[in-house]
Amino acid sequence: MGRYVLKGKPEVEVTLRRSSRARRLSLRVSRLDGRVTLTMPMRAAERDAHAFIEDRAEWLRQHVSDIGGEIPVQIGGTIPYQGQDLPIIAQTGRKTQLIDNTLYVPQDPEKTGIRVRAFLKVEARNHLAAASDRYAAQLGRSYGKITLRDTRSRWGSCTSAGDLMYSWRLIMAPPEVLNYVAAHEVAHLVEMNHSADFWAIVADLFPDHRRCRDWLNSSGNDLHRIRFGD
Q1: What's the rounded Cα separation, in Å, for the pair 11 and 134?
Q2: Residue 45 φ/ψ, nearest 5 degrees
Q3: Is the pLDDT of residue 63 over 90?
Q4: Residue 13: its pLDDT value, please?
Q5: Labelling 79: which of 26, 40, 54, 133 has CA 20 to 30 A away?
Q6: Phi and psi (nearest 5°) for 7?
Q7: DSSP state of 21
């Protein structure tokens, strides 16, 4: 796997990847972090790949610009929490604390991302468990265990055994968005599909679900741009 740098303002680095399944050259700009990949057939010449990239220079720069790059978590910056940006301020103590809409972290820049992520995971579990309990009680159903992951393809899931999985990054979204995802997954305890009956259950649990789905579609990727130093 190689790379090609598209010169200009700004420069764009493109990863070159060969695939036995590729029948033509294709460019992909990740909506998660703006990384660009050119997939090419096994026998394609690299000079043809370079020319392909140059021919699409304007298109590439526009798409990379639209998506934006990674956002590091650092002292002096901010972190979204329940839809609001919290300032991250250093303190002399050893704990990470949320006080008056400000997140205070120990004075150790190298571990700031790790500490902020740990705080968000604890908060996410508490809020998602409470929401899941509430909606499951409304349906008269019970669920198995709750697992938190940093998933990029989905915000939540429900297994046939009734176990729930959520992305902990939901704690950074507005509260109603987190609640919608919980209602959505709990509804699968009754209907393991996305039929009209399923959406009727979701609408009964969470009437404003369409607006929250729109928010995830338009703004959800921004949550994945936030990097915690890993």
Answers
A1: 50
A2: -80, 140
A3: no
A4: 86
A5: 133
A6: -70, 155
A7: T
Residue 149 CA to residue 216 CA, distance in Å, equals 17
Per-residue b or e along 151-175, where b marks 16 or more CB atoms closer than 10 Å to that residue's CB: eeeebbbbeeebebbbbbbbbbbbe
- Helix and strand numbers (H, E) in the chain are 6, 13
Q: Taking a C-beta distance cutoff of 8 angstroms, is the pair 42, 18 a contact?
A: yes
Q: Is 148 in contact with 164 (CB distance < 8 Å)? A: no
User: Which of 1, 81, 85 lies closest to 42 in space, CA to CA?
Assistant: 1
Residue 41 β-bridge partners? 19
Question: What local confidence, expressed as pLDDT, does residue 184 receive?
Answer: 98
pTM as predicted: 0.75
Write the burial class of residue 123 (CB in 10 Å: 0-12 exposed, 13-18 middle, 19+ buried).
middle
* For helices 196-205 and 175-187, angle between their N-to-C axes, nearest 10 degrees: 140
Alpha carbon distance 82, 185 (integer Å): 19
156-158: strand order across its sheet: 146-149, 164-167, 156-158
Alpha-carbon distance of 86 to 103, in angstroms, equals 6
